Amino acid sequence: MSVSKSTLRLAAVASAAALALAGCASATESVGSTGDSAAPGKGTKAVGFIMVGPKDDFGYNQAVYEGSQVIKKEFPDLDVLTAENVPEDDTAATTMEQMIDKGAKLIFATSYGHLDAAMKVAAAHPDVVVVQQGNTISGAVPKNAGTYFGTVYEPMYLAGIAAGASTKTNKLGYVYAFPIPQTIANIDAFERGAQSVNPKAETITVSTSSWCDPGKQQAAAASLLSQHVDVLTQHQDCTATVIQAAEKAGAMTVGYHADASSLAPKGWLTGAVWNWGPLYTDIVKTVLAGDFVGSKFNANYRVGYKTGTNPFVLAGFGPDVSADAKAKIDAAQKWLGTDAGSPFVGPVEDQSGKVVIKAGTVPTYAQNDALSFFVKGVVGKLAK
What region holds the ABC transporter substrate-binding protein PnrA-like domain (predicted)? Predict the structure, then answer.
């Protein structure tokens, strides 16, 4: 999930170097004219998905692609157009325009940094629905646009329980890309989950300033392992490098985005895995019915354990996760689905020990989407 400097400024977080990914492989199937329609997206014969990376990255983009194939199966009369390795610059807008030329009336722009291009295309094509994955739209929401995402920090909290219960050194490692709110929430939730069962657990962070750079990932993993970290996790688009580094070193690992347990048969603990199919299906049905305007998707839509239709699952457990840890994870998942449940129920202290969320306070999903600090127990400064 990539991010541009302009998007980071809009999100009011630190600026970061833009990811430069080359190439754009889009679908080649042509479709007939969809005709005019009063409702944005109604009458569509094609649906487009643009991805910032390859569809087989054992991570973020693979999960998106797998979700797109659910749409292909569920709606056999629709042409499903996909494009891999689409950068977050004007190429994204050009790719979406090409999909519209092929008949797409609904486009999923799935990178955090695709927001600007998505809004540009939505403004130019009021009859096309453009939904963006992971970012937020500030101010008035265009009638033919929206954003959506899942509270993936919740399963990361559960994965933190597995890590905290399994570590022998009390040192957990987290490789991340950019300090956007989603990343910060994931890291904080992971540490909070670990502390809930092991108050001595700390999470050491390393930033790669890239969503997918295997060389930087290898160096980050080596640095963490040299500090006696025995559980590695990450917020990277492509996940194989970090997982394989942990397995080779005899360390344990927590996956992210996609189930990569096959890469770590010995050290795999669990993972927060996207399952976009049901949510994508819900969006497509809403658009085909002509009901997008004013719907839950025509805004900044978020779903989690409290709301249902969760776009994520907790992956299966590896051999090092004890029966006691599994029971605690199951209880915590049920708790997260209640009004009182949250990885960030107060009191929450930042790294300096200052109480940022007061005791008894249960922050909303929107508030969690705006986190800008590391909690106590996280080691390392927020990347610039």
Answer: 46-295
